[in-house]
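We append the chain.
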Amino acid sequence: MHTPRKRPPIIVVLAIIATLVAAACSQAPTAAPSQQPTGQPSAAPVNAVVQSAQLLPAPAGAQPSGWETEEALRGQLTLLAQFDSSGAPAWDPVKHPTVFVSSMSYPVQRDEGKIYGNGFYIIDAYTKEVVTARVYDLGEEVTSYPHAAGVSPDGKWIYFMTADRVKATGVTRNQIMIVNAQTLKLDKVLVHPTQRLHHVGAFTDYAGNDRVIIDLGFGANGGPHFLLDPKNDNKVVQAITFDNVRPMGHPYTIPSFDGKYLYISMGAPEIREADAYAASIAKWDIEKKTATVIHGVGNHPIGITTTVSGAFTYVIDGTNSLVFKIDNATNEVVAKTSAGVAGPYGIRLNWDETLLFTVGKGEGTHNRGGVLGLVDTKTFSAARLSELPQMPINLVKPGDETVRVASVDHALLHPDPAVNELWVTNMAGNNVIVMDLKTYQVKNWIMTPNGGNTHGGSFVKYDSSFSGELLYDMFGPRASVAKLIAEKVAQVK
C-alpha cells in the first residue's frame, strides 16, 4: 500500500551536455531487430534513435522549477528535467495518418553492449509496418524498462516509464518520460520517490478539459495516481493519493465516458490472499474529489471497462479468474462469472458490447499466458460460440519459436470497425498480436524493433500538421470511436 513520505528536495536541472544543447537529438545505430517471420509486416527501421543527456547536480539553494503545483507536491511528483523538444518532424503523418504507439522494453535474451528498448515504437495501424522507434538515455544504469506508453487526447505528447540508478549516489529514480510526438524528442522527465509508472491513458473530462491519467505502482500496491493537463505544460491538476482512496490496489483506473468519474481498483497484498471477497472499486468523483466504494469484486481487481452508455462496469479479478458486473446506477455488484482463462489481466468489449474478451496472462500463477477468454454479456456466462475452433483462443504462432507470445496483458479494438481487429500487447514477448474478429484467428504478429516486449498502447489519428486525435487506448475508446460503438449497440436486439 502506498504510504505518504516526506517530500524530497526539488531537483532543478543546471545544465545538459553540449551535444544535447547543440543537436537536441543525436543518432546512434543499435542492434538490428529480430528476424522477421515470413509473411509478416516489416519491423524496419533497423536503427533506433537515442536522445541522451547528462544531468548535473542542482546548485546549493536552487529554487523550485515552477512546474510543481500544490497537487503535484501533495503526491510527491517533481520535475527532474526540462528539454527543448522543438524541431523538425521525425516521421510522416501523411504517409502514416493512423498509428499505434506502444512501449518498447528489453528482449528476453540480451547481449551486453547493445542499446535496447528504453522507449517506444510507432506502428502504422493499417499497413502494420513499424514506422519508427525511439530509445532514450539519461546517462545512468537503467533498472526498470518501459512498462507503459500513452498519448494525450490531442496526440501532442507521448508518455512512458523507466527507472535508473545514479552511479554517483546509488539513488534510483522512478521516471515518467514525456516526449513530443512530432519531433520524438524528450520534453520533460518527472520523478516519484517511491513508485514507478505502470499505466497511462487519456480522456476529456466533464468540463471539456483534456486530461492524462498516470497510474503508479505495481502488484497490489497502487497509487498515487495523477491527472495531468497536457495543454498546460503537463502540470498536475489532481493527485489521488492514499489519503483519498484507501487502500489502493493494482494501479488500474479508467474514466467514465461522461468524464465525471474515475474507477480505481482497491486492494492490498493481504486482501489478495484473503479467504473472502474483500477487494473493492472506488468510483472517484473528479469534480467533488470524493469516492464511492463499491464492495465485493473479488480479491485482486485489475482490468476495468465500462459500457459506452455508462450503465455497467466490468471488473477482472486476477486471483480468482472471475469477472464482476457492476450496475453503475446502484453502485452494486449484480453478477459474476468465470473469465474462462487462468489469471486474467486485461478486459475488452467488442464493437456491439455483446462479447467481453478476457486476456489470459496467468496473473498470480505462471504469468506466461497466451490466450483469450470470451464472456457473453447477455447471459453473463462463458461464451460457447459454435464457429470458434477452440476455447480459449490461442494467440501463439504454431511451429515458430521466433515469435514469442509469453505474457499477454492488454487488448484494444482497432478504431476502424471495417478493419475489425483486436490488438493484444505482450509484456514478455517480442510482438503485438493482431486477431481478426470475424474468424477469431490471429492474422499478424507485429515484431518489435530489437525484440523488445510491449505493454499497453494507443491508436492516434494525425493530419498533415500533426494535429492529432486519440481514438482508442488501453482504457477504452475515446469520443469518436465511442460514438460508433453506441450506434452498433443500439442495433442489437
Notes: The longest strand covers residues 157-165. The CA atoms of residues 72 and 236 lie 5 Å apart. The helical segments are 18-23, 70-74, 269-272, 479-490. Residues 1-39, 42-47 have pLDDT under 50 and may be disordered.
